[in-house]
Design a protein that fits this description.
The protein has helices spanning 3-16, 18-29, 41-53, 65-71, 130-147, 170-175, 223-240, 288-304, 329-343, 359-363, 378-381, 392-410; strands spanning 58-62, 77-86, 91-97, 116-117, 120-122, 152-159, 183-186, 193-197, 199-208, 212-213, 255-263, 269-270, 273-282, 310-319, 349-352, 368-370, 389-391. It is an alpha/beta fold.
């Protein structure tokens, strides 16, 4: 059987089973995985049940409850499906995450309905990344039905800790020695193959002053006024980040965002405490330790200019950037070849300004790429916004790209 005949038959199998794939994705969307609060074990249980219906046995790996609670979540059960074909080939992992931010407001569609309209399936996590639970599962099923590989192995990794950084998702599977793949494909979008991404530093800053009655403000120390000065210093630094340029296509420059601020007790009280949270995106060329030290310096210097003010700084998250590893080229080349044929346009290899839990595989020495079902941009997918959706034709074609890529890498 020629490779091209395999491709034709793989495509035909996926077309013949596509309605089943869509129903599978609808079932996944209908089980909420809002994180926080992060009660994600029920979704893993439902996923394993659906996989069992396809003849795929999923190993359930629950993270200890105390560890999950200390992390700020309620439950995590990660899944591994192992399919062993024979000696001599690579072990390829396909990873997608099921946890997602809460739906928020403004939806025209039920965020847990899996509704279909104008060729799109709507729902929270429909694009990022329950769609790739479906694309990876059905690519694997097509591979086994048509190509019947005799070497290597495929593993499906369905994990539930991307929103909080991945340490209890892929990080936990790797640290527990539950997996050691040779190559990785992780959930992404269809029109580019991502080989690098930004890092992310998140910090909580508490500015302490002294409360006082607003009628006698001089008896207090205004924490909000001091926080404004600190924020001004951070925003000024953010403007300077534009001068630092990444050499990775798709990634521009570092940037900083203040995403949450709270403080004070009432309108007639001088604020005694203000807390804000910042997010600093790091380009692949930056050193995370140096970035954190610089942010701490800027905050400390601005606070020192405010009499009576003290500051506490707590790191919430440090996610390193993903850098391309030697050995990922077979993945890149196969996805580009099949992506161009099936989507009718070049599939560039590039970086993304997002950060993902895929970096944890890279840090463990596993060459990987990010590719899956979805549109050209996060904005187009409505990920993390109202009416998140995936175009069903993107899902269909991405499934074919993955199946063909597995066929190439596991062929004789």
């Amino acid at each position: 059987m020629t490779a091209m005949t395999d491709y034709t038959r793989l495509d035909a199998w996926i077309d013949a089973h596509f309605d089943e794939e869509v129903r599978f994705l609808q079932e996944l969307v209908r089980v909420p995985t809002d994180t926080p609060p992060g009660n994600n074990a029920p979704h893993a249980e439902r996923t394993a049940e659906l996989l069992q219906g396809f003849g795929l046995q999923a190993e359930a790996h629950p993270v200890p409850a105390a560890q999950v609670r200390d992390y700020g979540l309620q439950s995590i059960t990660n899944l591994i499906v192992r399919r062993e074909y024979g000696a001599g080939g690579p072990r390829i992992a396909l990873n997608a995450h099921g946890d997602v931010v809460p739906p928020g407001e403004g939806w025209r569609h039920d965020p847990y309905g899996g509704e279909i309209e104008d060729g799109c399936l709507y729902g929270r996590a429909a694009a990022v990344s329950k769609s790739d639970f479906a694309s990876y599962t059905f690519a694997l099923r097509a591979l086994e039905a048509v190509a019947r590989p005799g070497r290597g192995a495929v593993e499906l990794h369905f994990t539930y800790d991307e929103e909080f950084g991945g340490l209890l998702g892929p990080g936990w599977l790797l640290s527990q020695g539950l997996t050691r793949p040779d190559l990785l494909i992780a959930a992404g979008f269809s029109y580019e193959v991502v080989t690098a991404h930004n890092g992310c530093l998140q910090m909580e800053v508490t500015v302490h002053g002294k409360m006082a009655h607003a009628a006698v403000p001089a008896t207090g120390v205004d924490a909000l006024q001091a926080a404004v000065a600190i924020l001004g210093a951070l925003y000024a630094q953010n403007a300077r980040y534009r001068e630092i340029r990444s050499q990775v296509p798709g990634i521009t420059h570092p940037y900083l965002n203040i995403g949450r601020i709270e403080g004070g007790t009432n309108t007639n009280v001088v604020p005694g405490k203000v807390v804000f949270k910042l997010d600093r995106r790091m380009i692949p060329e930056e050193n995370a330790a140096e970035v954190e030290a610089d942010i701490r310096r800027i905050i400390a210097e601005a606070a020192a200019a405010q009499p009576g003010i003290t500051v506490e700084i707590r790191r919430l998250l440090l996610a390193n950037a993903m850098r391309p590893l030697p050995g990922n080229q077979p993945l890149v080349q196969a996805i580009q070849k099949h992506g161009q044929e099936l989507f009718g346009e070049p599939i560039p290899a590039m970086g993304t300004p997002l950060y993902t839990d895929v970096r944890l595989y890279a840090e463990a020495g596993v060459p990987g790429v990010i590719y899956g079902a979805g549109p050209r941009t996060v904005l187009e997918s409505h990920a993390k916004r109202n009416d998140e959706r995936v175009a069903l034709e993107d899902l269909r074609r991405a499934t074919k790209v993955i199946a063909r890529t597995l066929c190439d890498l596991l062929g004789e």
